[in-house]
Amino acid sequence: MPPSTALRRCFQPPRALLGSASSPARTFSRRSFATKPSPLPTVPTCPSPTCGCAATPAMPEGLDIDRTTPLNGAITGYAEHVLVCTGRDDWPSRIEEENSGDNLAADLKELFGRGGRLSDPFHNISVLNASFPSSISPRPEIQSTSAYLLPSFKYVPFLPRISFDSVEALANGYLLPEKLHSAHDGLSPVHRDRLLRKEAYQSLLPGVQDVKDVVVLICGHGGRDMRCGVMAPVLEREFEEKLEREGLTVATGPVAVGTTAAATIEGGISEKEGVTARVGRISHIGGHKYAGNVIIYLPPGMKAEGKTHPLAGHGIWYGRVEPAHVEGIVRETIVQGNIIADMFRGGINTDRQIILPPDEDHAHFPLAEDGPGKPPSCLRGARLGSSTAADWEPAVVEMSPCELDVASATRAGSIFVVAGSLLGGVAYYLLSPSSDATSLNDTTFVPYTITARESVSATSFVFTVSPRHPNPSLSYLLPLSRNWRYPLWSVEFKQPEVQIARHYTPLPPLRNEDALDGSLRFYVRSVGDGEMSSYLGRLGVGNQVWLRGPHAGFDLLGRLGACAHVVFLAGGTGVVPGLQAASAVLDQRRDTKVTLLWAVRSRHELQAVQRTPRPWWSLWRGEKPLVLGETLEAASPVGRQLQEMKTRYHDRLTIHVAISEEDARFDDKAIFKALTAGPVHKAIKYDSTGCRLHDQGLHNQVSEFESLGAGCACPAPAGVIPGKNLFIVCGPDGFISHYAGPKVWLGGQQTQGPIEGVAARLQEQHPALARDWLVLKL
Predict the structure, then answer these.
(1) Hey, what domains does the chain have and what are their CATH numbers?
(2) pLDDT at res. 682
(3) What value does the mean pLDDT take over residues 247-268?
């Protein structure tokens, strides 16, 4: 769909851009990018330390620090940093995925991210996670998150996680601009109003206060790049020590609000001895190769030697910071107000003006973090005049973050290229689809409609969703095929009322279903404290839901190799990945066997009949699990799926069902019997150490969501396909912990963790199980 007339007018280039392509680039630069010398003082290099400091830590192998590329200007354009106080010091690679998407960063990126409802390329809101703890809510029973807004120098102590209203209030009351960029002049009044700040929303957020602390931020996103993960802890300790040595008070712990302790965020700013500082780690800011990366925010009104601090109200970015530099940074920048030139990446002031060095020779800093399919970084460098080393002086750039991208294009020498960059860049942000995308993808949520729903029990149901816009090329199908691409995969559902997302696994298609129509079926149990499942339980046929995916799981076939037995132990709705796994393995090879053990609470999950009363003499014995055949009386929707698969695969698929309300359990003996009842596979001795597919120890630290990686690295004899039988456990956390040990949070993601519980006991009693079987937790 072409852009509206108003938007086309918005993108009309100035007449000056339509001149000769041979016009000098500097003409455009002077006309469009007004710069002025800044009075900010500088020193050429960081002074040597005068006291002891920690050694620079060694970097991980293959991840060196870039010490040659000029730093000057290596900063992305932004108008505001939102620091989400998580109380954690590392996060998933994509911070919005933490806690399965139930977090403030995800909420804000939904609004301000690419294609978001409030996204504005001329007022970029950069959302970061920070290690600072959130303030303690006056109502502890309500989960709340705190946030810093910089360079607004505001602290928002209470953002309740029970409603999206607080996120809307933060966005509309504090984050949107008070005045729009002139590029928006062609927008309708309604669209302009939507992008403007509304102060009435501020009253909805209690306790908001000015930040009068010096805030030192260190990129410590080890889940994104280990260089920052290694450097950040050392720098954090150094800054805390050197700040206190210079007489500043380093505040730790939650900011107290509404009590006399609130001064912890409002440290005195008249003299150095009264200044309070906070030091914390933050998530990815770009340029990991320049680790350590540090941003220092100095509050407005800060004094230095009785006068206004030269950098008051500014945010200063430094790169390649080592422990030996910390004393000099504290003394020169925080205490005296000098920018250290050879470490300076850029900066920002309270007017949202980006501060860049003027040296043309230092304006080559492509940020390689932008991958294919992502919008270009708003900043690639600007030609801001020239100066000698003796009169080096930063320049304030009076342009929006996105206009900075145009400046780098001027260095290519073509006015027309510059015009195209401006038009294309702005159009990309304002016109590119996100939530308006029509095809299922793993970046944005797309709308689906509930087209069928069938109750299974009083608390569970199976429902079908269909895409609003059919797509003949579905991302989860093999090309020119009706077969699924992944043995295990899931999609995310979004709960728009509270802006959270949860993973759900689709059921394999039934024989009478056409996978090409894009419809997907899901088995859901609605639990009282489950926000997402309760939300889905309230929806009926015709309602709209939002999906994102597919997200691939473990490569089962690569791990199975030449082995032929899979035992899948499922609890509750965890049976759905078991059905996926069985379909993938049994369809791929005729010599495989799958044993499905399903532990379920009520018989109604399987069939709509009452249990047969037990004889009185057997009441002290536990009931044995059911063995499911090819016929099942009054089968539930899930029971029908099991029955159809049993009919299709016959003896290659064995299904046992243990109903807890009837005192049936899968004990150690039942698990061992299942593991040893499959096809005999004569073990061939080879060392699987170091193989990402077959080394159990390596699996301890990986997530079940698997990206494409190297294949098998086992040194097997020629002609032998290495592999292991698979014992997979899927279900609630307590279920997984009992049978295989708990999953472990590591580096911001939920990992497999060591093998414990029933599986560990069986491996200890029968060492061949540890050699021939791989244990996976879903």
Answers:
(1) 80-210 (no CATH), 446-552 (2.40.30.10), 556-777 (no CATH)
(2) 53
(3) 67
